[in-house]
Structures are given as structure tokens and as C-alpha cells.
Amino acid sequence: MTIAMEAPPSVERGEVILEARSVDKYYGDDRTPVLDSVSVALHSGEFVALLGPSGSGKSTLLRLLSGLMPPSGGMVLSHGEELTGINPNVAIVFQSFALFPWLTVLQNVELGLLAAGVPVEQRRERAVAAIDLIGLDGYEEAFPKELSGGMKQRVGFARALVVQPEVLFMDEPFSALDVLTGETLRAELQELWNSKSMPTRAVLLVTHNIDEAVTLADRILVFGANPGHIRIELPGLPAHERMHHGPARQHLVDAIYRVMTNPGEDASMLVGQPSAPARAERPRRYQVLPDVGIDDLTGFVQYLSSIGGRANVHDLARDLQLRSDDVLAIVEASDLLGFADLQDRAVLLTQPGVEFADAELDAEKAMFRHFALAHVSLLRHIVRELDASPSATLDSDRLMEELEEAFSGGEARRQFETVVDWGRYAELFSYDDASGELRLDPESGVGAADALREAMTADSSATWSVDGDDN
After folding, report:
1. CATH code of the domain made up of 16-270
2. Does residue 468 carry a pLDDT above 70?
3. Which of 2, 17, 208, 436 would give a disulfide with 396, using CB separation of 3.0 to 4.6 Å?
4. Could you report the per-residue pLDDT of 390-399, keeping only the tens digit for each?
5. HEC-encoded secondary structure of 168-182
6. Cα dihedral 331, 337, 342, 348 in deg (nearest 10)
7. Which of 241, 240, 267 is nearest to 256 (CA)?
8. Ranges of each domain in the chain
9. What is the Cα 165 distance to its own chain's centre?
């Protein structure tokens, strides 16, 4: 079966099952935008991928289309009728397996049918069929603790498919799995879809994995962030070309890389399409922090320095044996902090990046502290709040409430964990998970407020001296 974004003249696209028309989503009293005028239509018979960086609003769009939350503007239509509640024609497979540990595999799969009031015998029959479909025969009486990650996610697929949804949503369903398990499940999913064995008419996949989108999708929507919007819509490859690493696949992968490594550029121009109308920028309270730990960030800068300070992003993914989305996140974090620059598909160390890679630990932390405060608005906000507090503390629940006004719940938690990791490494504050308090640490010897003032007044591009002062 060959399906692409632009169907040949002899093939008619299926009917529109589900549609978002100029959908906006914002949180909080200050109307912090998460999605900005997103329009997308899902047709019968197609597999669509929403591809973009973490925090770009992909998962939020899924929740709007499924009726789990209302849009702040625009509308969602199901078969041409405005959706005003939960969409009964949609089932979702999440990144987290979300299984009930006290229920068996069979009982977990039956849950959706139980809520729908399906009679016991029919419920059992359909659950067994779904378990068989996704390759879990023999595990019906097993409990989740007995299953591997891949097996748990199979239960998630069976639980979604047993209700025979018209549309299947998948929210990064393979990202919590190891590479080989994820590859196996992707291949099995593709086989089920191509053979029309799945009891569903369309699939919508949220991912930040380029190879995953290219392998599975008939159509690829590339999202941008701050706030979330569709940067470009690209046709997928014919089915017979997706698994072969030939010129067509490489061309599409390269085009997506160009778009994702140049977030400030016109995506249409990057891939040679007619330019789209300019989009008015709507400010967001905090920029989205890439989900990158300190060890990965510092190790990447040091590795890039060791190979001459320049590399192609695609080559980095291969040489570091990382997924493309993981490399892009690390590159994005390095670029955000001023340690690297992106030029087309190449990443180059800046002069501060070169010095950061060569610095001893104390100087490395001082540099990180300076550049993080200069470039990360959320980190600056936390330091100001701590400095203004008589007790030099900040309640994490209060901070989470603020983040949940700027991000969806899951993304707010990721942003919190990332900024705490970065702030601890920079010795700006400590965090006590038991009490839920962030606290200025007087024993660190770092004056956080002084560091903030220095970072905001100094020239961030200046050469960094060994003792951590700007020249």
C-alpha cells in the first residue's frame, strides 16, 4: 500500500475523520501560549506523525483532539461536528505504560471495555483477541511486575485496540524502551497497519525521533516551539522505500534535519517549498529547556572539542550511538547556553564552548553558572525568588504551579527536573525532595544574586578566563 501526503491523481484521500481548526491553547491568567493557531486534518487510511522537540505542544494537541481538554481558541471537529467532550472514537497509547500492578494482563486489557459496559463474555473474547493480535499469547494471567518494558507496552497497545477505536493516538510510545525493543515494536506495528489487521482507520503518532517518523508515517508534521505551531508538513515515503536506506529516505531525513536544526529559519525555504505566510510571534514566559542532563551536556561539549569542534548532526548520532532526537536535544541545550552554534546540519563549538571543554571542574561550573543565568529565563526567575525570600527558600509546589501555567503537566515536571539539575550543578541552590524546598546554599561560596547581576551585565560572547571572570 503506497500512501503519501499528496496522493496521486488516481487516488482519492479518505474522508476527514478528525480536524483541528486554528486551535490555540494557553494556560494561566496571563494567557501563556502553548499552541498557536494549529490546523491539521486526519484522514481515513493514513498514518500521521507529529515530529518536534520536547515542549513544542505535540502532546497538548493530542489531548485537544481526544477531548481531554478544551481548546482556548479555534475548534476541534469530529466528522465535521464540533467536539465538546471526550472523543469516544479515540484511544491513546502513552509513553508510560500506566498499568494497574494488581491486575493481570487480561484484566488490564479488559478495563476499557468494562468502562463501556460491554458484557462479560464479549469483553473476555475481545480482550483475548487483542492480546493475541499484539503477540502476548500466554501472558494473559501474568502481572505487570513479571513483564519486560516491551511486554508492558504491548499491553498498552492491546488495551487501546480492544475498544476498536476509529483513531489510535500514540504519545511517544517507544521512547521509554531500549533501542532494540523499540525497533521490534515499531516493525510489528507497521506490519499490523500495512496488513490492515488493526481495528482502526487512522493513526496519529507523537514523536521527536526522526527515523521513527520517516519509517512509519504517510505524512509528517514538524512542530516548532515557543509556542507550538506547525512549521511544515512533509509527505512520507512510499511504503516500500521506508525500510531501505536509499536516496529517497536519506533525502527526507536530511530535509527534516535541516528544519529541526534551524528552528529560527523558514522551514519551507529549507526544504525548497514555497514560503508560508509569516507567523506573528507570541511571547512565552519561559523558553523550553531541552530534556538534557548535565553529564550528557558536558560530555558532548568535550567530545566535540576532541574532534576539532565541528561535526554533522547526523554523523554525531551515528558516532555517539545515540538516537537522532537525543543528539538534537543535546545540541539544542549547547546552543541555548552559548557553547555551540548550529549552521544548517553542522554544529560548531563557540569560543566559550572551547574554553568550557578545557576547563577544570571549578572553572567549568563557574562558566556554566554564568552562561546559564545569562540565557535561561527560568533559572533567573528562581534565583530572584530565592534572593527575595527572607528564608532564602522557594517551595517547589509553588514553582510547579507557575510552570503548569506555562506548560502541560508532564512537560512542567520535565522542565522542573531539568532546571533543578542545572541549578544544582551551577551551585546556585540545593533542592530537598523530602521537604520540597529549593534553598540558597551559603556553604557553596557562590553569591547567586551577585552571579545573576554579573551574568546580565557582562558580554556573554567574551573570552572566559581561568578564574571564571569575563574579559
Report:
1. 3.40.50.300
2. no
3. 436
4. 888 999 999 9
5. EEEECCCCCCCHHHH
6. -90
7. 267
8. 16-270, 294-457
9. 24
